[in-house]
Amino acid sequence: MENRSRTNYELLEEISALKQQIKELEQSESERKLAEEAMRESEGRFRGMAGEMAVIAEISRVIGSTLKIDEVYERFATEAKKLISVDSLAINLYKYQNKTMRVAHVSGVSIDHRKQGDPLVLEGSLSEAVIRAQTGLRIQPANIDEIVSRFPRLFPIFHAGLRSIMCVPLVSRDEVIGVLHFRSKTPNAYTERDLGLAERIGAQIAGAIANAQLFSELKQAEEALERVHDELEQHVADRTEELMRVNEDLRTEITERKQAEAALRESEQNYRLLATYHKQLNDISIGFTAASSTEDLLNRIADSFRLLTGAIAATFSVYNNKTRDLKVVSLSTDPISSSKVESIFGPGLFEIRMPVSAEDMEHMLRQGVRRPKDLCELSFGIIPQDISDAVMNAVGCRQIIAIAISYAEELVGTCIAYLPGDQPVVPDDALKTYIYLSGLTVQRRWAEDALRESEEKYRLIAENTADLISVLDMNLRFTYVSPASMRLRGFTAEEAMQQSLEQVLTPEAMQLGLSVFEEEMQLEASGTPDPDRTRILELEEYKKDGSTIWVEVNLSFLRDKDRKPVGILIVSRDISERRRAEEELNKSKEQYRQAQKMEAIGQLAGGVAHDFNNMLNIILGYSQMALMKIEPTNPLRADIMEIMNAARRSADLVRQLLAFARKQTIAPKALDLNDTVAGMLNMLRKLIGENIDLLWMPAANLWPVKMDPAQIDQILANLTVNARDSIFGVGNITIETGKAEFNDAYCSKYTDFVPGQYVLLAVSDNGCGMDKETLEKIYEPFFTTKEIGKGTGMGLATVHGIVKQNNGFVNVYSEPGKGTTFKIYLPRHEEGEMKIDELYRQAGHLAGTETVLLVEDNEALLKMAKIMLEGLGYTVLAAGSPDEAVKLAEQYEGEVHLLVTDVVMPKMSGRDLQRRLSALRPDMKYLFMSGYTTNVIAHRGILDEGVNFLQKPFHMEELAAKLREALE
Fold first, then answer.
1. What's the CA gap between 704 and 710, in Å, rounded?
2. Model pTM greater than 0.70?
3. Could you tell me the pLDDT band of residue 542, with boundaries at 50, 70 and 90?
4. End-to-end CA gap in the chain
5. Phi, psi of 166 (to 5 degrees)
6. What are the helix and strand counts (H, E) for the chain?
7. Which residue has the higher pLDDT, 539 or 562?
8. Residues 890-917: pLDDT tens digits?
9. Are 703 and 829 in contact, with CB atoms under 8 Å apart?
10. What gap in Å lies between CA 549 and CA 575, rounded to an integer?
């Protein structure tokens, strides 16, 4: 019994112990289940956060993977739907300047057939409320009618079966640029957490919209960001797999519970650390975008790097690609160490430039993130080891993190963080993300600065260049005019912008411009033009004062990205002075051409003058002597008179040709123009006829002129005959004289005028006048407006030649129907007193008995002259050559009173003959004669003052007068 009782007691004890063990096991199992439940809950949260991060990363990658904004919209919508429940997604863009909104993207359930590009009414809409509040809204109504009454424009949305709406503003640089709409058919589909997610991804799409067209390299940048996020995602996946293995170990071995809890804590800590860095980097990105200037951005980079790494101090150095060195531009310190760090580095820090070799740059770009022990290694040995140790100890630094900030494989700069050694280690993935954000933002800001600088530079060029720059649209309306418009045309840029082309261009210039525009557009339509071609035109434009200006315009098309013309760039330059210079040059060329023509005619006339004058002299001489032998009633007398008249007209024609070419042989004398003209009046009245009145208006106290009186006769005869022929019926011809004086300023406007004092001889008529085309040709030889046979065309050419030969100039004023005035200006003569020689008109009173030695190489002319001289009573010794004349002078025993010799003869000239004979007969007088032009005989001294000269052909009266003049 007793044994049985012990046995029962022992059994009870064992049962009680077993129950206790079972209770402990149950308690352990319960704890294990709680741990597993906590693990599952942690894994759920972790996977949810990881999923959100993956989607957000994917959205970032998507919007950066293409520059085509429509493709960005499509792919953004696809990824956003993975994160937020949505049946209809819309992106509407808002333009602040004109308060308008349009549809940029729609997907999912169709609402009222809206499509991309459609305008939206903003007033009273949900978008207006979101834009005004600049915050997101959720609408999940229990009563649809009540909501529709507040927002009538929501009716199409609810009518389409959608019951939940979430809208967030798209904000870029503190400005709302659009609204993002999420809509679901499920009531109460969206939470506050969804609204936060929507705002986060809304910020991303807003940035993509704002920057899509600003940076052509965004695709490469976003691909780099995608790789970073892929690595983060892989890291999260790897950590998740590790956690799952830990969880599996917990389920299989309860004894490892404490290790599992430690692993869980480590996992949660890593997750929190990763989430913290992700948020911090997101805040850094927002801060970079909000930088007010490039300097502010560089300072923020140093600040953010110090905060990210927990460093005592951080510096940011910019790499200069031209000088190939790094220069510190910003220093950031914590508040505690601020004074200490700044005292160590000092202002000289910003003067340091560290050269970077090609090998160093390649090493920095390849390594990216470095954690060297000291500054010596960081500076590639440029900073000595002792200085490196001293600086690190003084700052209290135990570790240095250096990153090479780059973008698109180009070095931007470097950041250095000085760490005390007791802060958490920043993951390399976070540093690589920071490198990407910093490099992208700096390059973007530099690009913006360069763009602004370029725009400012070209604006300054356009506003300060002497050339006028303007732009026309394809409808030929001005869209830009530079301020040079005021200088060139007198219009302000604003006034010129309002003008049409008809108000700018003269009709001829407008016609030319339109024809060129039509040609260019036809070339464009052909599909094979040179897109870089330009056209250069010379156009006449109106100025504000009504005058015109000539401009040279350089025209080229402005083109869009598809090389299609969208406007016309015009660069105009004032060429009025050049045009005037060209006109002067053309005038000079015309004068040179005229001079060449005169020279050619002169050469022609001079070439034939001698022989022709000799023949004319023979005809005139024998005709005159024949008349002297024939009775006045003889029928042959009229025939001989006709022969003489023909010879005289031929001689006059030769003189006119020589006068035009300024080769006429003249005998200038100082004379009073009034007396000379007065002596011509009776002859001129007979010349013009009784139906025309000749008015003579002489000026008092007229200055003398020096010229051949016969040339005055020629001028007056030609001008009065021309005036007579221009008058039909009765009329008036006025001859007047006067004095004129021209200064340099006046002569600068007229190329033919020379400053000085002049005597005026003017001949005016009230005839038919001349047009502009006729005036341009009046001095050309053989040009005439008279009928064939009634004019030689040499009259005005002769006048012009005579005036030019005497260093004067002619002005003519004429208009059709208003008559013509010729004003001739002859230089004032100031040397000596005037001697007006009397002309001997009667050969009978000029006979002589002296002995004359006559020398002429033309046998016929020698014979005729001998007969004339003998007829005048002289004793004549005739010689056909200079040698024969010398022999006669040596052999003749009597006195030889006068030598009459031709100037140009074979072997010996008349001047040389005179010098030779002067030794034999010192008292002998001399008379030279010639049919050559003045150019041929002038250099022989024949035309010198006091030398007697007779121009061939001559009349017997002229010969007689010259003989007496030479002898007496």
1. 16
2. no
3. very high
4. 209
5. -135, 125
6. 30, 29
7. 539
8. 888 889 888 988 887 877 888 888 888 8
9. yes
10. 8
